[in-house]
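Repro:
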Amino acid sequence: MPKRARPTKPARSTADLLIDAAAREFRAHGYGGTDSNKIAARAGFAPQTFYRHFADKLAIFIAVYRRWEDEEAAMVASLVEKRAGAAALADAVVAHHRAWLLFRRSLRTLSVENETMRKARAESRLRQIRNAIALTGTGTLETLAPLLFQIERLTDAIAEGEFADLGVSESAAREALAKLLSALRRR
């Protein structure tokens, strides 16, 4: 009896491999703690390979941000499809932000300091709002933007441990986040 050929995974592009490596670098060291040479080396490429695919470190940071956004959107969509409660959504979103802590810190800093990053973050937020409208079937930019900012900031504060810094239990903040997520579903 002849052996069956195993299905093979499609080869990943060099750009995808560089983005994977950059994500690991940014998660471990933040934006300021890495450079294009480290990213290329982590991906197994020479430094010049990096520049064939990305103009600079900011360009790959934005590509990683887009991947982070897609990952979070898929996670939320999956939980919504499973009819997960607001508390489960809150826990999942906090866990996602916590797993990307240094990356998120870098994102906040770059968004203040760099116009290109600020524009990329605005585009991301617009996509998030469109996704929320698609998931809930309701809401507008005007009604969802304030909610998105509250959810985003509260999630980052929980992930960063800012409530513990105040000597406040994280549970109250998670409850508030769950309420915001419930409000998002109702808009």
